[in-house]
Design goal:
Number of helices: 10
CATH class of the largest domain: Alpha Beta
Radius of gyration: 19 Å
Helix content: 25-40%
Distance between the termini: 21 Å
Number of strands: 11
Structural class: alpha+beta
Largest sheet: 5 strands, mixed
Number of domains: 2
Length: about 250
């Protein structure tokens, strides 16, 4: 089992090892959490189909459905939306087309917020100049506020809930994305049998499952009580965010 290296190895274990243990108990097979060394390592191992169970975003889940015989089992409740904001007083920028040739800050790909931005500019000669910021969306907003960029992209929940009212007055929303299904868990359909998959879905929704996924929910879906069942149909087509966009996909 694996997940993106968004945390330190120690923090990753706290999030995902309880889930791996739950799956071990249900399947009767030893499941271990493997923390990737880097994003490049994570993507390389995924492309080689080395992982049996993965928790990550809808773009990766969709890609594995198409290329690695993975099936979605359960997801975090809610949806993913992203917003692009610009400086409140910048009359040059009122629409996303106004960002062509301008500087836009965000987290480095394959962050889905950034990939969403790229999807809006299919012509490579008519795109914003993207500036990758390290340290999370808080640092992205500081970069926008300090004038490093003309606009920035955020998860909508971060922008609405984590940015102060005073700071919001300094910015304006120029684009809101369509909703996407939330992050979830996929499993390899031949390595995890249909019976085991059904058992896993039921287990993830049980009291034991709620306990095992509590750290995960606290990190990514703070107000949620449990994961919810999902289907392949929800994630169909979302691989477009990485296929043909990021080298190697």
């Amino acid at each position: 089992m694996s997940a993106p290296p968004r945390e330190s190895p120690e923090a990753g274990k706290l999030l995902y090892e309880p889930v791996a243990q739950l799956i071990s108990n249900i399947t009767g097979q030893k499941v271990t959490y493997q923390h990737p060394k880097s994003w490049l390592n994570y993507q390389n191992q995924m492309r080689k189909n080395r992982y049996d169970i993965i928790f990550d975003g809808p773009h990766f889940m969709s890609w594995r459905m198409n290329h690695s015989e993975h099936i979605p089992l359960a997801k975090l409740p809610g949806e993913l939306r992203f917003v692009i904001v610009a400086h409140a007083g910048d009359e040059r920028i009122k629409h996303i087309d106004d960002l062509i040739g301008k500087k836009i800050c965000g987290l480095a790909p394959p962050n889905l917020a950034t990939l969403m931005v790229y999807s809006k500019y299919p012509n490579p000669v008519r795109q914003p100049n993207f500036i990758a910021i390290k340290g999370g969306f808080k640092k992205v907003f500081l970069a926008l506020k300090s004038g490093q960029c003309d606009a920035a992209v955020f998860r909508d929940s971060f922008y609405h809930n984590k940015i102060s009212k005073e700071d919001k007055t300094l910015s304006k929303t120029i684009f809101i994305s369509d909703p996407l299904p939330n992050q979830g868990i996929t499993v390899h359909k031949t390595r995890v049998s249909e019976k085991q998959r059904q058992q896993l879905v039921q287990s993830l929704l049980s009291d034991a499952g709620k306990k095992a996924t509590r750290p995960l929910l606290k990190r990514f879906a703070k107000n949620a009580d449990a994961m919810v069942p999902t289907s392949s149909a929800e994630y169909s087509g979302h691989s477009q965010f990485i296929e043909g966009v990021i080298f190697g996909w």
